[in-house]
Design goal:
The chain is of the alpha+beta class and 285 residues long. Among the domains are: 83-155, Trypsin-like serine proteases (Thrombin, subunit H); 169-265, Beta Barrel (Thrombin, subunit H), CATH 2.40.10. The chain has helices at 17-20, 24-46, 62-69, 75-81, 115-118, 257-264, and strands at residues 86-90, 98-106, 110-114, 124-130, 133-145, 150-155, 177-183, 189-205, 208-216, 228-230, 236-244, 250-256. Strands 1-2-3-6-5-4 form a 6-stranded antiparallel barrel. It has a 6-stranded antiparallel β-barrel with strand order 7-8-9-12-11-10. A hairpin with a 5-residue loop joins strand 7 and strand 8.
């Protein structure tokens, strides 16, 4: 049996403590913190490309993209990161396919390709792979280097592009690992891993004899002509020229990066790649 006793005296009064405290101060603090968070986010977006790696450039290079995301890029990541900076170069027709490949070397749309590929084209278009598919940009020849079969193009657009840094190839030796890229007639990327075979090879292109070229077995198709040869850091070692050898097979030659820089640095502000000591070293037997 439960007994209920009488309660003597006044009952205690319940109080809602929050209502008796000032609510303005915590609300103001919370609002201030929200404002600071948004302000900091806006600052980061406005200054994202203005750190030491991107000073003086509006967009990233292939090498910077690799290093930014991973400390030591794996070879397989090159096959995903490099192609957006590799373009197809062709005529101005809507359905005209590429006659050569090219390499974007400036965020503002500068492209290097082989001169003999574009010298007879009345109009030039550059085909760039984007997330929305292949896009075509009209382009003009800015400068040529007949002695090395090179042409510098400028896409007629204000858009920014992923582009290559220039590798330090002064110490390139036979056996060094390289990768040759290009685009086929349908715009799909081509890529092959290989080794440098020679660092001082000659080649005759029409009536022009070119010397001090690199030779590699990474170039296997004429569609890689004008495309980039890169090192394991994703930096541009040079521009490829596919030639037919005595046996009828494709032989790969490359105009080295230092030649490109010496002739075109008055037009393009090139980015320098990793020091020679950080390049992929000899991997052959």
């Amino acid at each position: 049996m439960i007994e209920v006793g009488e309660t003597m005296g006044d009952l205690p009064t319940n109080k809602i403590v929050f209502c008796e405290r000032s609510w303005k101060t915590p609300v103001l603090i919370l609002a201030f913190l929200v404002f600071v968070t948004f302000a900091w986010g806006i600052y980061l977006l406005d200054h994202y490309d203005e750190d030491d790696n991107f000073h003086g450039a509006d967009d990233m290079s292939v090498g910077q993209f690799l290093v930014r995301n991973i400390a030591m890029p794996h070879v397989q990541r090159l096959y995903h990161t490099v192609p957006p900076a590799v373009v197809g170069v062709g005529g101005g027709g809507v359905n005209a396919g590429p006659v050569a490949s090219g390499a974007i070397v400036g965020a503002n749309g500068y492209v290097i390709t082989t001169l003999h590929s574009v010298s007879n084209l009345p109009e030039i278009s550059v085909q760039v792979a984007t997330t929305g598919g292949i896009r075509r940009f009209p382009a003009q020849v800015v400068k040529t280097i007949p002695g090395h079969d090179l042409a510098l193009l400028k896409m007629q657009t204000t858009e920014k592009f992923l582009h290559f840094r220039m590798a330090d190839v002064q110490t390139v030796v036979p056996g060094q690992q390289v990768f040759a890229f290009g685009r086929n007639s349908s715009g799909a990327p081509l890529a092959r891993q290989g080794l440098v075979q020679s660092a001082d090879a000659p080649l005759a292109v029409g009536t022009t004899r070119i010397t001090h070229l690199l030779r590699s077995d990474a170039v296997y198709s004429w569609e890689q002509t004008g495309g980039p040869l890169v090192n394991v850091q994703g930096d541009l070692v040079g521009i490829n020229i596919a030639a037919t050898g005595p046996t009828g097979k494709v032989e790969g030659f490359t105009v080295p990066a230092q030649v490109i820089v010496s002739h075109l640095q008055d037009v393009v502000r090139f980015k320098k790649g990793s020091p020679a000591g950080k390049l992929g070293g000899p991997t052959g037997p």
